[in-house]
Write a structure and sequence with these properties.
Two copies of one chain form a homodimer.
Chain A (H helix, E strand, L loop, with lengths): L2 H36 L4 H12 L5 H8 L3 H13 L3 E5 L7 E5 L1 H10 L1 H11 L4 H27 L1
Antiparallel strand pairs in A: 1-2
The structure holds a DNA duplex.
Chain lengths: 158, 158
DNA sequence: GTGGAATCATTCGATGATGGAACTAAAGTG
DNA sequence: CACTTTAGTTCCATCATCGAATGATTCCAC
């Protein structure tokens, strides 16, 4: 295999992976949309719950920045989520202009039931794979997630 | 390494990957939300464009089924997309109750520019990886995408 | 061929998610 | 201390979405 051939193969495999990741983003969005209807939850609400779960500490400003919502839309959404028992809000002691948003066990349970069908289908695929391969893929996805988070931050600043 | 250890490691790697995929779904959702605001496009519109691009042939019913929208919301959205020059609609010759939805070059260009920042960040990660590893990961993602599509179909039927 | 049922996309009117303006409370700065 | 900035909320207008109704088309049993 010459260097020219190696370069072509690298760029093809890389492009393939990017394309599959793009398709995954579309497919899982559609899965979540289906589930949001089944559970009568608006999908922006679900996005906010996912953000609160993925971050260590969350304020309304984190949510409005992260999802690109206006402050007033964020307030209205947190009102909905609080009414539904999915989040709690508490004034931050060190900066009383702000509020700390916490996820509830109710929201975690709803989230878990939402991914039940998907988890079953995914398990069928993953159980046929080599364990060391899965570990390497998980490590790669971790790096890709960091890159995606950096891209979001850059897009938010642009 | 005993069988008991191997079993634990396998389930841990599998769980790690599922978790990273879940995180990826959240992160890329937030990236897309940022971009939808930058480009003044509603996120449901983006989801519809992605669906039309990922499927070979699309009708309003495919879109309303796929995204869980009502037929009337689907019509309103296609009106928006058509006005923006992102899709075209043509009556299907073999069944004149229906409409065939086609993506335009304009939409493809907008989609491309939307993923520019993300593509750059991802390229930095992928360029450090072994090519054969990328190819294996791409193949695994392809299977995961098929499983996700099956899960959406099951969720839609439930 | 005919009548009725089913399918498909659209129109219409009501509901509620979202953004912009205004506001209050709190923190930061010179 | 006075002024500016930050953070979240309230109020009101806009528009995305839903359910009901509609018209056109296709399917199916007789």
């Amino acid at each position: 295999m010459t260097n020219a051939n190696r370069r072509d193969m690298g760029s093809a495999a890389s492009d393939d992976l990017v394309r599959e990741l793009r398709i995954f983003a579309g497919e899982i969005e559609r899965y979540i949309l289906q589930m949001s209807h089944t559970h009568s939850m608006h999908r922006t609400d679900l996005a906010a719950i996912a953000l609160v779960m993925d971050r260590e500490t969350t304020t309304p400003k984190d949510i409005s920045d992260g999802l690109g919502l206006s402050p007033s839309a964020t307030t209205a959404m947190l009102d909905r989520l609080e009414r539904a028992g999915h989040v709690t809000r508490e004034r931050v002691e060190t900066d009383r202009r702000s509020v700390h948003v916490e996820i509830t066990d109710t929201a975690i349970a709803v989230g878990g039931s939402m991914f039940g069908i998907l988890a079953r289908h995914m398990r069928q695929v993953l159980d046929t794979q080599d364990d060391a391969e899965l570990a390497r893929t998980a490590a790669l996805m971790e790096q890709i997630n960091t890159a995606t988070r950096a891209a979001s931050a850059e897009a938010a600043g642009a």
